UniProtKB/TrEMBL annotation:
Protein name: tRNA pseudouridine synthase B
A GO MF label: RNA binding
Pfam families: TruB_C_2 (PF16198), TruB_N (PF01509)
PANTHER family: PSEUDOURIDYLATE SYNTHASE TRUB1, TRNA-PSEUDOURIDINE SYNTHASE
Domain of life: Bacteria
Known EC number: 5.4.99.25
Gene3D superfamilies documented for this protein: Pseudouridine synthase (3.30.2350.10)
Catalysed reaction equations from the record: uridine(55) in tRNA = pseudouridine(55) in tRNA
Positions annotated as active site in the UniProt record: 46 (nucleophile)
Function: Responsible for synthesis of pseudouridine from uracil-55 in the psi GC loop of transfer RNAs.
Species this chain originates from: Bombella intestini
Family, per entry: Belongs to the pseudouridine synthase TruB family. Type 1 subfamily.
């Protein structure tokens, strides 16, 4: 998302998204508040959801795909007894049940919902069906029949049982997992129905709540016109390369790094740094020079080639170079 005017700001800001506004709304608010030119977010949170929303500014937007694919952690509350059209508390009631599973019954169904599974997305989702958003079709009274999609759920842990009607879970998952669908499926596996009533993301890739700032800390509760544009950044941004820390690192020399930035392949046999075993088996490497990340590369057929390079005039005394 880019504006015609604004400052060139680069880096990651981690927002503790409040309940109510959409992820896109929060990105727009931050762009206006910081007088930025370009920004995007690393993984949508529904208006009902709160928690870790990584927001990339400027050149950091090129690393968004690596956050979208990253492991995420959530805590949600499942309310038993009612299924809803949206699979959350905002929808209309579809069905009811008097069955309330015990803790033991809940824990017994969780292993079958973990691993590589097929998950049916909520009909109120942003998936496109015949060129239209699924939620638009559902709101028009034509809910689509969405096929199951592959999903990876690493772990589901029952962490609290406030009462017979509710259960609280911690979940670690991969890309594209819908917590609303997971809550629905846990209830169905227990022989009842349910919906998600509280959802909070606690981690997204390398970012967690310890990195996050609230809307109030960022001054988003104040009118935009009262801000001093010269002091529009109330907190420091994290470096763009922070999004890549979960990718294995490969050290190269400054000369080798400069060749990669200029689009030239580097022979693995010629690398002066230590080359880890299996370098050609990993899909991506986070290439560093003197401990500083210069970009992402892939090894194949004995050569290391750039996939996406970051700004590196700091190391090479050149103007910005972008071979992405």
């Amino acid at each position: 998302m880019a504006r015609k005017r604004g400052r060139d700001i680069h880096g990651w800001l981690i927002l503790d998204k409040p309940l109510g506004p959409s992820s896109t709304t929060m990105v727009n608010r931050l762009l206006r508040a910081f007088d930025g030119r370009k920004a995007g977010h690393g993984g949508t949170l529904d208006p009902l959801a709160s928690g870790v929303l990584p927001i990339a500014f400027g050149k950091a937007t090129s690393t968004i795909p690596y956050i979208m694919d990253a492991t995420k952690r959530y805590r949600f509350t499942l309310s038993f007894g009612e299924s809803r059209t949206t699979d959350d508390r905002e929808g209309e009631v579809l069905a009811t049940s008097d069955i309330r599973p015990s803790d033991e019954e809940i824990r017994a169904v969780l292993p079958a919902l973990c691993g590589d599974v097929m998950q049916v997305p909520p009909v109120f989702s942003a998936l496109r069906v015949g060129g239209q958003r699924a939620y638009d079709l559902a709101r028009a009274g034509r809910p689509p029949d969405l096929p199951p999609r592959p999903a990876r759920i690493d772990s589901i842990t029952l962490v609290d049982r406030p009462d017979a009607d509710t259960a609280v879970f911690d979940v670690q998952s991969g890309k594209g997992v819908y917590m609303r669908s997971l809550a629905r499926d846990i209830a169905l596996a227990c022989g009842t129905v349910g919906h998600i009533s509280v959802l909070r993301r606690t981690k997204c890739g390398p970012f967690d709540l310890s990195h996050a700032y609230s809307a109030e800390q960022l001054g988003l509760d104040k009118p935009t016109e009262t801000r001093d544009k010269a002091c529009a950044l109330p907190v420091p941004l994290l470096d763009a390369a922070t999004a890549l820390v979960d990718i294995p690192a490969l050290a190269v020399t400054q000369a080798e790094g400069k060749s990669l930035i200029c689009g030239q392949a580097v022979m693995l046999a010629h690398l002066e740094g230590n080359v880890p075993d299996g370098v050609e088996d990993a899909p991506l490497w986070r290439v560093t020079v003197g401990g500083h990340v210069i970009g992402l590369c892939r090894a194949a057929e004995g050569r290391l080639r750039a996939v996406r390079m970051l700004e590196n005039h700091l190391f090479f005394g050149e103007q910005d170079v972008d071979h992405s």
